[in-house]
From TrEMBL:
Presence of the UniProt keyword Signal in the record: yes
Organism of provenance: Arthrobacter yangruifuii
InterPro entries to which the protein is assigned, alphabetical: 6-blade_b-propeller_TolB-like, ScyD/ScyE-like
Biased composition (Pro residues): 372-382
Signal peptide segment: 1-26
Region Disordered: start-end pairs: 23-43, 359-421
Compositional bias segments (type: Basic residues): 397-407
Domain of life of the native organism: Bacteria
Keyword entries, A-Z: Signal
Protein name, UniProt field: ScyD/ScyE family protein
Length: 421
C-alpha cells in the first residue's frame, strides 16, 4: 500500500475541516478560493557585473551572492557593495570549470570538473567541494568516480530505434548518433541542493541526480528518462531521417526543491541543437520516479520554485525567463532577458544570471564561427551579470528562497534539512 504524501494528508485534512465548518456566505453557498495570481516581473536591478560565465550561484542573507564564474574556473563572493572576493579556485593543470553552487549553515558547496566527453576516468574530473567560513576548501565527494563505477543511466537506451543506413549516417548533424546506444560514462556536475543527509547533485553527463553524503558516499537518487524527438521533414535536416524518432539524452541542468517536498529538475536534451525541447521534471525523492511537468523550453538551464508551486525557468537560447503557474503545465513569458542561465529566489526577489555567454565564451551549438582576425584579437573582458527582479506585490507571500535560505519543506528521505544559511 502506498504511503500518503504529506501534501495529500494536508489536503485531506483541509477537506474534512471544510465539511465540518459552517458556511461562510449568507446564502450558505461555498465558493472555491481563487488561484493565486501568476507572478509578474517588477523593477529590475543589476547587482553584479563583470562576471565570467556565472552558470550557478546562491544568494545568502544580507544580499551576498556566491557565484561560480564557470569560464574562469573560480568561485567568488559578491559583497553587498558589489565587489567580489575569491572563495576558491580550480587547479590550473588543465581547463577546469566550476558550477553547482549552493549554501547552507555557513558552508558553500560547488563542483570542479574537467574532461567532459573524454570518457576517460583519468581525465574526466567531477568533484563536489566545499569552502567554510574560515576559507578551508575540502573535497566532499568524487561524483565522476561514482559515474565510472555505477553508470546510473546505463539503463537507458538513446538514439534511433534502429541504426540508419551508412549513406544517411554520413549526413547526420554532429551529436546525433546513427545507431542506438546505452548511457555512456561521462560526468559533468552542474547543480547542487543541500539536504539533511547530504547534497543532491545534478550531473549533466550522468543524466542523473545523486546524493553526495557528508561522509563522502554517493548514491543514485533518480535517472532522467530519454526524451523522444521526431525529426521534422525539411528545416535543414537530412531527408533520410525525416519522420524518424530519436531518443535524446535528457541532460539535467538544475535541481530545486518544491513546496511539496519533491525535487524539480530542468532538462536540456543532448540533441537540443537539432530542436529538441527542454523540459521540467518532478522527481519523487523517495522512489526516484520522474514525472514530466512542462516542456517546450529553448535551452532550459535553471529553475526556481516558489512556495505556491510556480516554476520559473531560464531559457538560455530563448533569451527569456518563463513561468509555469502552479497546477499547470503551460509555460508563460515572465521576462525577456539576454542569455539567462541560473535562477534563485530570495524573499520577494528573483535573481538571474544573464549574458552568460558574453566575453568570448563558448557559442551555442550550430552557431557560425566568427571570422579569424590577424593578429588575434584580445579576449573580450568578462561581461556577464546577475540581476535582481522584484516580484509583483500581488504575489507576495508565495515566494520561497532556495540554496541560500530555508529548506524546511516536508521530510522526504532526508533530502531536506530545515537549515538556514
Amino acid at each position: 500500500m502506498k504511503k500518503s504524501s504529506p501534501a495529500l494528508a494536508v489536503l485531506a485534512a483541509a477537506a474534512a475541516l471544510g465539511l465540518m465548518a459552517s458556511p461562510a456566505s449568507a446564502g450558505g453557498r461555498h465558493h472555491p478560493p481563487s488561484p493565486p495570481p501568476v507572478p509578474a516581473a517588477g523593477e529590475v536591478t543589476t547587482v553584479a557585473g563583470g562576471l565570467a560565465g556565472p552558470l550557478s550561484f546562491a544568494v545568502g542573507r544580507g544580499g551576498t551572492i556566491d557565484v561560480a564564474q564557470s569560464f574562469a574556473g573560480i568561485v567568488s563572493r559578491v559583497t553587498n557593495g558589489g565587489g567580489t572576493e575569491l572563495l576558491a579556485a580550480a587547479p590550473q593543470d588543465q581547463p577546469y570549470g566550476t558550477a553547482s553552487v549552493s549554501r547552507t549553515r555557513g558552508t558553500t558547496y560547488f563542483s570542479v570538473s574537467a574532461g567532459q566527453d573524454s570518457r576517460d576516468p583519468a581525465t574526466n574530473i567531477g568533484l563536489l567541494q566545499s569552502v567554510d567560513r574560515n576559507g578551508t576548501v575540502r573535497t566532499v565527494a568524487d561524483i565522476a568516480g561514482y559515474e565510472y563505477a555505477a553508470n546510473p543511466d546505463g539503463i537507458n537506451t538513446y538514439g534511433f530505434e534502429e541504426a540508419v543506413p551508412a549513406d544517411c549516417a554520413a549526413q547526420l548533424p554532429e551529436g546525433i548518433q546513427p545507431a542506438p546506444y546505452t548511457g555512456l560514462r561521462d560526468s559533468n556536475p552542474v547543480a547542487s541542493l543541500p539536504g539533511r543527509n547530504g547534497i543532491v547533485v545534478a550531473d549533466a553527463g550522468m543524466n542523473a541526480l545523486v546524493l553526495a553524503g557528508y561522509d563522502g558516499s554517493v548514491s543514485t537518487v533518480a535517472v532522467l528518462p530519454p526524451i523522444p524527438f521526431t525529426f521534422p521533414a525539411g528545416l535543414g535536416f537530412p531527408e533520410c531521417i525525416g519522420g524518424l524518432t530519436y531518443q535524446a539524452e535528457p541532460v539535467p541542468t538544475d535541481v530545486e526543491r518544491g513546496p511539496d517536498g519533491a525535487l524539480y529538475v530542468t532538462s536540456l536534451p543532448g540533441a537540443f541543437d537539432a530542436g529538441a525541447p527542454g523540459s521540467v521534471y518532478r522527481i519523487n525523492p523517495v522512489t526516484g520516479t520522474p514525472e514530466l511537468v512542462a516542456s517546450g523550453f529553448v535551452g532550459a538551464t535553471g529553475l526556481a520554485v516558489n512556495d505556491n508551486g510556480d516554476i520559473f525557468v531560464a531559457e538560455l537560447f530563448g533569451n527569456r525567463i518563463s513561468v509555469v503557474p502552479a497546477g499547470t503545465g503551460t509555460p508563460q513569458l515572465f521576462l525577456e532577458v539576454n542569455q539567462p542561465a541560473a535562477l534563485e529566489l530570495r524573499g520577494d526577489s528573483l535573481y538571474a544570471s544573464v549574458d552568460v555567454l558574453a566575453g568570448g565564451a563558448p557559442q551555442e551549438p550550430g552557431a557560425e564561427e566568427p571570422p579569424v582576425t590577424e593578429p588575434p584579437a584580445e579576449p573580450a573582458p568578462p561581461a556577464s551579470s546577475i540581476i535582481r527582479i522584484e516580484l509583483d506585490d500581488n504575489c507576495r507571500g508565495y515566494h520561497h528562497h532556495h540554496r541560500g535560505g530555508h529548506h524546511g519543506h516536508a521530510d522526504n528521505g532526508g533530502l531536506n534539512d530545515g537549515s538556514e544559511d
